[in-house]
UniProtKB/TrEMBL annotation:
Domain of life where this protein originates: Bacteria
Protein name as it appears in the record: Small ribosomal subunit protein uS5
InterPro entries: Ribosomal_Su5_D2-typ_SF, Ribosomal_uS5, Ribosomal_uS5_bac-type, Ribosomal_uS5_C, Ribosomal_uS5_N, Ribosomal_uS5_N_CS, Ribsml_uS5_D2-typ_fold_subgr
Family to which the UniProt record says this protein belongs: Belongs to the universal ribosomal protein uS5 family.
Domain (S5 DRBM): residue spans on this chain: 21-84
NCBIfam families: rpsE_bact
Any single biological process term in GO: translation
Species annotation: Candidatus Magasanikbacteria bacterium CG10_big_fil_rev_8_21_14_0_10_42_10
Pfam families linked: Ribosomal_S5, Ribosomal_S5_C
Ranges annotated as biased composition (Basic residues): 1-13
Segments of this protein annotated with the region Disordered: 1-20
Key words of the record: Ribonucleoprotein, Ribosomal protein, RNA-binding, rRNA-binding
Recorded GO CC terms: cytoplasm; small ribosomal subunit
């Protein structure tokens, strides 16, 4: 089919649409299940997704090949999205969370300090769009999946004060749990 102006367009493609969320594969493992019929191989994939504007999610799924595992994990991550509250470009307050042997401490950091975190905690905070934060892995495990789950527990436990209009005889602010 000819171009409307009569010029041929070779190798031109439509501009790529930017995906809704950035995604990063954190852990990819080939796992086997031993059955009576032999070993069944599959792939386990852990994916982090985020919009870098305060929303982040994770998914862990298995599939017969890597692509299927990644697609399933991304689908699950979209269902597990959480919103991270930010106050003055950092976390609202220090928070501590534990999941199995993973123990995580997240603290606010001054403006300009960046993300001071190791391992997958840094990736979670980057995907969430937290510009300044400090963290410490207190647990004795390097298990990425458990560290991600502990970090998500910490991010979900933030207490933020939401201001409400003052009515006769009521307090100005009410403490709400941000999920």
């Amino acid at each position: 089919m000819a171009h409307p102006e009569g010029k041929k367009r070779r190798g031109s493609r439509a501009p790529k649409e930017k995906p809704e969320f950035d995604q990063q594969i954190v852990d990819l493992a080939r796992v086997t299940r031993v059955t009576k019929g032999g070993k069944q191989m599959s792939f386990r994939c852990c994916v982090l997704i985020g919009d870098r504007k305060g929303r982040v999610g994770y998914g862990i799924q298995k599939g017969k090949d890597v692509q299927i595992a990644v697609e399933k994990a991304v689908r699950q991550a979209k269902k597990r999205m959480i919103t991270v509250p930010l106050i003055k470009e950092t976390l609202p307050h220090a928070v501590h969370a534990k999941f199995k042997a993973a123990d995580v401490l997240l603290k606010p950091a001054p403006k300009g300090s960046g993300i001071i975190a190791g391992s997958v905690i840094r990736t979670v905070l980057e995907m969430a769009g937290v510009p300044n934060a400090s963290s410490k892995m207190l647990g004795k495990t390097n298990n990425k999946i458990n560290n991600i789950k502990a970090t998500f527990e910490a991010l979900q436990s933030f207490q933020v004060k939401a201001k409400t209009p003052k009515k006769a005889g009521e307090a100005v602010s009410e403490e709400k749990k941000n999920v």
